[in-house]
């Protein structure tokens, strides 16, 4: 993340850039300088997840109660000294940064493979040096912070720009994160989360003015330096030969520094000693070997310009723009009012289709274009209008979706409706496990029904809506291109309601409609009465378990017992007791089952958001329903054949609820011809030797099962990846 090599350079070559500061003292100074004002720190939440996750156990699916307590203590520490916190989360991956996103996901795959190898070899959790954040942590952290009363925002582009812009425009005390890009932005001070001591509120401030002093640069030169070194927009290798030339011609910086540090100093020296001589007279392409990468380089430099800022390195030409991927890129960041006017294009029009309309999508409904001006968008920082393809034509619905997205109240909904492109990062899944499918495939039929709902194709008939681009990580997916996933029609008693009815209606029956639509997304309409009778928060859990057991036929009765028992025992159990719980050993299958359940909870967030929130989000937050170590304990006990009484720790009320919930799940699964039996009653081959999903071929998923009724995850061909039918045959 950030500028390549800059963090190490600062630590080794100019440590005076780093200064120990105290937040309490900074807040007091801020109040004295701004009477009546509240000192605020804007937090790059994605940089802080590792710092916040303090529980010792991380491989079992997440210690969510402990994590929630950790977040609460973090908030309390700043609130106690009168500091307001504003949290930003990444909301979308920009196209220019997709390659970097893919590179990190593939690297994570290798790390996860090592984790499972260690678990199988040692039957224990690896050390903290192999730490991998639990699945769904970023998503649920948003809701945890909102539950703690914190201002929590989700970005409409890369979060670091919006963080820097917010801090700049709101006179914040500083930015708390761990990204060297914050040394490049000309914004409020940058503080390190990794160096933060919560007890004393001491941390390290990285001073960009001191960095400039060490390098002989001005603040306006830093974006140029960052792009020549390589960042998330400009690949590091693009100017490698240029850096070598700078190093060869600048003998004074080659001494007493490592190779990368010397290159950074040499590039800085070239900027100050050579390029600055022609600043304002020559364009960057006249002074640098930009070649065919000119537009990308300009975009990289411009991406650091906050609202109202300009770069002295850009010579203002008459049109004041360069072209990048058919977009207009301004060379300043003058604030303009936002406008968003969706216009549905006439399919009979001879107007040329907008960029992004791939004929492979086989669109039979008109796409829509938004003419919008974004004040905070570095790709369009001038008054020129940017025409963005959107997937829906209703401006009111798009406005609602956008507002919920920005306020971190939904998940993936706005991405589907605005760009038709979504992503899901790595999960703790064993790529060598032949019996358990990836969560990406298990919950795909649910997502397909949500796409149908959001894109206006939820009525009867065949799926004709546009495909959604999915960047989901799973074994065998090289991520060279997205999976193209088509919407899947829903079967709703009485017909499918419109999105306007679900989101905007206040009629008496609207909530029941939302509930019916949510069940239809999981294809559970036939079990409505049984599920409706279940008390909260177990209603959401039962819905998820029924869907999971119908989809994954290698799940057995012992698994169901473990899922239900841990949810019951979790109620009222003190956090300290959960933290002290010790496990006999770690089972890799239980690790992956935990991932399936937690990713199911994130899918519930998506479905609930899309259906107009028939459930309170708190009903399926993991700190109310799931604890990784507790589930692992119940799994190991259930595998040994422990009775229900022992599994629920001899609690009589839990025993009654255990049998009630088990009966609901088993009855609902029975309606789908899916009996849940004990593993002891399986035939020897039932554990399954099914091949892992996915080859490298590329197509679209129509989303219809061969039976024509229920969409099973194995019946997704001819899908986004080509499947061999025999591999997916049910036993």
From TrEMBL:
Residues 677-731 are annotated as: Disordered. It is found in: Nucleus. GO terms for biological process: fat cell differentiation; peroxisome proliferator activated receptor signaling pathway. Its main location: nucleus. Residues 677-689 have a biased composition (Basic residues). InterPro entries: Coact_PPARg, PIN-like_dom_sf. One of its GO terms (cellular component) is nucleus. Residues 692-706 have a biased composition (Low complexity). Keywords: Activator, Differentiation, Nucleus, Transcription, Transcription regulation. Belongs to the constitutive coactivator of PPAR-gamma family. Functions as a transactivator of PPARG and ESR1. Functions in adipogenesis through PPARG activation. Interacts with ESR1 and RXRA. Interacts with PPARG; in a ligand-independent manner. This is Constitutive coactivator of peroxisome proliferator-activated receptor gamma. It comes from Moschus moschiferus (Siberian musk deer).
């Amino acid at each position: 993340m950030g500028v390549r090599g800059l963090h190490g350079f600062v630590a080794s070559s100019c440590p005076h850039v780093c200064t120990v500061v105290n937040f309490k003292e900074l807040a007091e100074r801020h109040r004295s300088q701004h009477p009546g004002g509240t000192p605020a720190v804007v937090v790059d939440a994605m940089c802080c997840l590792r710092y916040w996750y303090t529980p010792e156990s991380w491989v079992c699916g997440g210690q969510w109660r402990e994590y929630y307590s950790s977040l609460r203590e973090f908030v309390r520490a700043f609130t106690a000294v009168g500091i307001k916190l504003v949290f930003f989360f990444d909301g979308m991956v920009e196209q220019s940064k997709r390659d970097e996103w893919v590179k990190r996901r593939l690297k994570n795959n290798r790390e996860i493979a090592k984790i499972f190898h260690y678990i199988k070899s040692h039957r224990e959790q690896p050390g903290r040096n192999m730490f991998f954040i639990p699945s769904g942590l970023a998503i649920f952290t948003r809701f945890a912070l909102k539950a703690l009363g914190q201002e929590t925002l989700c970005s409409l582009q890369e979060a670091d720009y919006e963080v820097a812009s917010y801090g700049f425009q709101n006179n914040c005390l500083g930015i708390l994160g761990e990204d060297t890009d914050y040394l490049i932005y000309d914004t409020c001070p940058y503080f390190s989360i990794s160096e933060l001591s919560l007890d004393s509120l001491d941390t390290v401030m990285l001073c960009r003015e001191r960095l400039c002093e060490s390098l002989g640069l001005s603040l306006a030169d830093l974006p140029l330096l960052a792009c020549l070194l390589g960042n998330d927009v400009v690949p590091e290798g693009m100017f490698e030969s240029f850096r070598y030339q700078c190093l060869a011609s600048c003998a004074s910086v080659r001494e007493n520094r490592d190779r990368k540090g010397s290159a950074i100093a040499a590039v800085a020296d070239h900027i100050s000693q050579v390029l600055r001589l022609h600043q304002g007279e020559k364009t960057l392409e006249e002074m640098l070997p930009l070649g065919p990468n000119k537009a990308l380089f300009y975009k990289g430099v411009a991406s650091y310009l906050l609202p109202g800022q300009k770069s002295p390195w850009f010579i203002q030409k008459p049109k004041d723009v360069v072209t990048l991927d058919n977009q207009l890129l301004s060379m300043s960041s003058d604030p303009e009012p936002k406008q968003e006017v969706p216009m549905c294009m006439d399919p009979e029009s001879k107007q040329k289709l907008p960029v992004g309309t791939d004929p492979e999508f086989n669109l039979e409904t008109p796409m829509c274009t938004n003419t919008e001006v974004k004040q905070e968008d570095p790709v369009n920082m001038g008054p020129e209008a940017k025409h963005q393809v959107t997937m829906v034509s209703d401006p009111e619905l798009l406005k609602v979706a956008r507002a919920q997205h920005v306020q971190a109240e939904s998940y993936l909904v706005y991405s589907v409706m605005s760009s038709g492109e979504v992503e899901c990062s790595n999960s703790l899944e064993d790529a060598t496990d032949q019996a358990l499918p990836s969560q990406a495939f298990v919950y795909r039929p649910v997502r397909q029904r949500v796409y149908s709902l959001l894109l206006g194709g939820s009525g009867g008939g065949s799926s004709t809506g546009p495909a959604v681009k999915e960047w989901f990580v799973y074994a065998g997916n090289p991520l060279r291109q997205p999976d193209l996933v088509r919407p899947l029609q829903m079967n709703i008693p009485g017909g499918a309601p419109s999105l306007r009815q679900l989101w905007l209606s206040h009629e008496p029956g609207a909530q029941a409609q939302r509930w019916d639509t949510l069940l239809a997304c999981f294809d559970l309409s036939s079990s409505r009465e049984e599920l409706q009778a279940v008390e909260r928060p177990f209603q959401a859990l039962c819905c998820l378990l029924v869907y999971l057991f119908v989809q994954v036929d290698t799940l057995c009765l012992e698994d169901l017992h473990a899922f239900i028992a841990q949810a019951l025992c979790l109620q009222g159990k003190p956090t300290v007791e959960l933290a002290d719980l010790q496990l006999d050993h770690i089972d890799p299958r239980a690790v992956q089952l935990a991932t399936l359940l937690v990713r199911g909870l994130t899918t519930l967030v998506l479905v609930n958001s899309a259906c107009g929130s028939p459930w309170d989000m708190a009903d399926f937050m993991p700190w109310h329903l799931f604890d990784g170590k507790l589930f692992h304990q119940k799994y190991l006990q259930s595998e040994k054949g422990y009775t229900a009484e022992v599994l629920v720790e001899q609690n009589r009320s839990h025993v009654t609820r255990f049998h009630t919930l088990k009966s609901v799940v088993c009855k609902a699964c029975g309606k789908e011809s899916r009996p849940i039996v004990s593993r002891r009653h399986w035939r020897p081959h039932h554990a399954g030797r099914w091949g892992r999903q996915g080859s490298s071929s590329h197509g679209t998923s129509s989303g219809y099962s061969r039976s024509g009724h229920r969409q099973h995850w194995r019946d997704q061909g001819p899908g986004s990846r080509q499947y061999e039918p025999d591999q997916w045959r049910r036993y």
